[in-house]
Amino acid sequence: MLGHPPDTHRGGPLTAALDIGGTKISAALVDPGGTLTARAQRPTPRTAGAEDVRSAVVACLRDLARHEDWQHVGALGVCSAGPVDRARGTASPVNIPAWREYPLLTALSELPELSGLPTRFGGDAVAMTAGEHRYGAARGHRNALCMVVSTGVGAGLVLDGQVRLGPTGNAGHLGHVTVDLDGEQCPCGSSGCLERLASGEAITRRALHSGWRPPEGGAPTTAAVAEAARAGDPPAREAFDRAARALAAGIAGCATLLELEVAVLGGGVMQASDLLLPRIRRYMERYAPLPFAELTLTTAALGSDAGLVGAAALARAD
Ligand SMILES: [Zn+2]
To answer: How confident is the model at residue 303 (pLDDT cuts 50, 70, 90)?
Structure first.
C-alpha cells in the first residue's frame, strides 16, 4: 500500500509482475501457484515521449500497490518487449520508439513502493519461457525451447533445468537466426531470419504476395489468412506451409544442437495451431532426422497472461 515505510513487509509469498508491451502495460500480483490475484493495466503511450511511457508504468504499478495484499509481496519480476539488456537494466522495445536503452530498472528503483523488493528483469520471450517451465507446458522438462510466434518471433531456452538468460537476457533469440540463405533483409541487420518467414505479418505478407485477398470488406489479418487456408485457398495454405517449414528448421537446429525434450509454441499466431503443428511435425522429420533430436512439440499453456506469469516465474527462478 502507498505510504508503507520502506523495507518493511518484504519476503512475502506473493510476487508482483510487470509486463511492458507495445500495446499495453500490465501489472499483477501472482500467487505461488502462478495464479493472478490482482491486476492493473494501462495503454502503452507508444507514440509519446520516454517520460510519458515511464509515467504509465509508474501509474500501473501504483494502481497495483494500492491493493491490500501488496504488503505480502516478496519479489518483483519485470519483463519487456525486447531487445533488453538485463545486465544494464535497459529496455529498447521495438514497438516503443521513445525507449532506446531506457534505464528501466533505475527508474523503478526510484519508486518508494518498490523499495527493498528483489527484482529480476528479462525479455518477454525469456519470461514466457520461465512461466511455461514453472507452471505450463514445459513443466518437468530439463531441456526445452519455448517460442512466442506473434507480430515477431521470440524464444527462450531451458537448459539443465534452468532458464538460460544469457548476459544481456536475450539468449535463445531464435527469431533472428537465419533459416533462409537467400532470404530477405531483416530490420535486425541480418537476412533470412526466421521471424521474416514465420511471424504473423510474414504469413499475411506472403499470402497477399501470392494473390490471396481478404473477404469483401475484411482486413488482411493473419486470422483471415488462416480461415482461407482452412477453406483450401492455395496461397493461404502455402503461406502457412512456408511459415511451418521455417519454424521446423529453427526448432530442428535447436533440437540437434541441444538435445531438447520439448518445444512449446505460444503467441497469437498459434491460434492457427491446427494449420501449423501438423506441418511443423512433418518438416521436423526432414530437418531433424537424427534420433537424439527427436522432441515433443506442443502448444503453450499460459495464454494471454504468459508475460505476467512469466515475469513472476523469472522473479522466483533459482
Ligand atoms: Zn533478424
So the answer is: confident
* Residue 84 alpha carbon to ligand 1 centre in Å: 15
Ligand 1 center from residue 9 Cα (angstroms): 44
For the whole model, what pTM was predicted?
0.90
Report the pLDDT averaged over residues 248-256. Answer: 98
Find cell 519461457 and name the residue.
129
What's the CA-to-centroid distance between 80 and ligand 1, angstroms? 18
pLDDT at 47: 87
- The H or E element containing residue 14 is strand 14-20
Does domain 139-300 fall into CATH 3.20.20.120?
Answer: no
Question: Which of 104, 79, 145, 93 has the alpha carbon at shortest distance from 310?
Answer: 79
14-129+305-316 belongs to CATH 3.30.420.40: yes
Check residue 10 and give its pLDDT.
64
How many CA within 13 A on the CB side of residue 208?
13
Same topology, domains 14-129+305-316 and 139-300? Answer is yes
245 CA distance to ligand 1 centroid (A)?
17
